[in-house]
Design a protein that fits this description.
Layout lengths: L1 H22 L2 H11 L6 H10 L2 H9 L14 H8 L2 H9 L15 H8 L2 H9 L14 H7 L3 H9 L14 H7 L3 H9 L17
Helix pairs in contact: 2-4, 3-5, 4-6, 5-6, 5-7, 7-8, 7-9, 8-10, 9-10, 9-11, 10-12, 11-12
Length: about 210
C-alpha cells in the first residue's frame, strides 16, 4: 500500500507539473490577458490598439506571438498608425520588438516617418530617425518626410529632418519643392531653413502682384 501511494503521489506531481507548464506558457498567458480585456486576437485588432495608444494591449499581442509588421485590411501596420497618431510609447515598443522602421503602408506607400511628419509628431519622428529611418524615402506621389513637414508648416520638424540628411532640394511628382510647400503654408521660418540648407531661391514662389486700379 505505501508503494502504491507513492506511485499515486508521483503521478499527481507529474500531472501538476505539466499543468503548470501549460498555464505558464507566455504566449497563452498573453492571449488570456487579451481575452480578459475583451480584445480579439487578430491583425485588425492589433493595429487598432496601436492606433489608440494602448501600450498594454500592444505588448500582450507581441507577447502572444503576433508579427509586429502585420497589416490591417487597409494595408497599415501598427507602427504606421502609431506614428500617424503620435503614440510615442507604442512606437518605441514596436521598434524594440522588431518592427521595421521604414515599412510602408500598402495604399499610399508612405513610411512611418512620413506619417509622423504629416501629423507634426516631432518626438515620434526623432525616435524613428534615431532608429535609422530614411528621410529621403518618398511615397507614391513623390512626397517625402520633408515635404510633408513643410506642407503642414512644421518648422521644428523641417529642421530635424534637415539635420538628419533630408534633401532640401526634394520635389514631389508635380515638381513642387519643399520650399514651395512651406511658402504655401505661410511658414517663413521653414522657407529660410530650406534655402539656407541649399534649396534654390528661384524655386521659391513669389508673392502675387496686387491688382492695379
Amino acid at each position: 500500500m505505501p508503494e502504491q501511494n507513492r506511485h499515486i503521489a508521483i503521478a499527481v506531481l507529474i500531472a501538476l507539473a505539466f499543468l503548470e507548464l501549460a498555464c505558464g506558457n507566455p504566449r497563452e498567458k498573453a492571449r488570456a490577458r487579451l481575452g480578459e480585456m475583451n480584445v480579439t486576437y487578430s491583425a485588425a485588432s492589433f493595429v487598432e490598439r496601436a492606433k489608440d495608444g494602448d501600450v498594454f494591449a500592444v505588448r500582450y499581442f507581441l507577447d502572444a506571438g503576433m508579427n509586429p509588421d502585420v497589416a490591417d485590411s487597409e494595408g497599415k501596420t501598427p507602427l504606421v498608425v502609431a506614428a500617424e497618431m503620435g503614440r510615442l510609447e507604442v512606437v518605441q515598443l514596436l521598434l524594440d520588438r522588431g518592427a521595421r522602421v521604414d515599412l510602408r503602408d500598402a495604399k499610399y506607400r508612405a513610411t512611418p516617418l512620413i506619417w509622423a511628419s504629416l501629423g507634426g509628431h516631432e518626438h515620434v519622428a526623432q525616435l524613428l530617425l534615431a532608429k535609422g529611418a530614411d528621410p529621403k524615402i518618398k511615397q507614391q506621389q513623390g512626397v517625402d518626410a520633408l515635404i510633408a513637414a513643410a506642407a503642414r508648416g512644421r518648422t521644428k520638424l523641417v529642421k530635424l529632418l534637415l539635420d538628419h540628411g533630408a534633401n532640401p532640394k526634394t520635389t514631389d511628382k508635380e515638381g513642387k519643392t519643399a520650399v514651395m510647400w512651406a511658402a504655401k503654408a505661410g511658414d517663413s521660418a521653414a522657407v529660410k531653413l530650406l534655402t539656407d540648407a541649399g534649396a534654390p531661391w528661384d524655386r521659391v514662389p513669389k508673392a502675387p502682384e496686387t491688382a492695379k486700379p
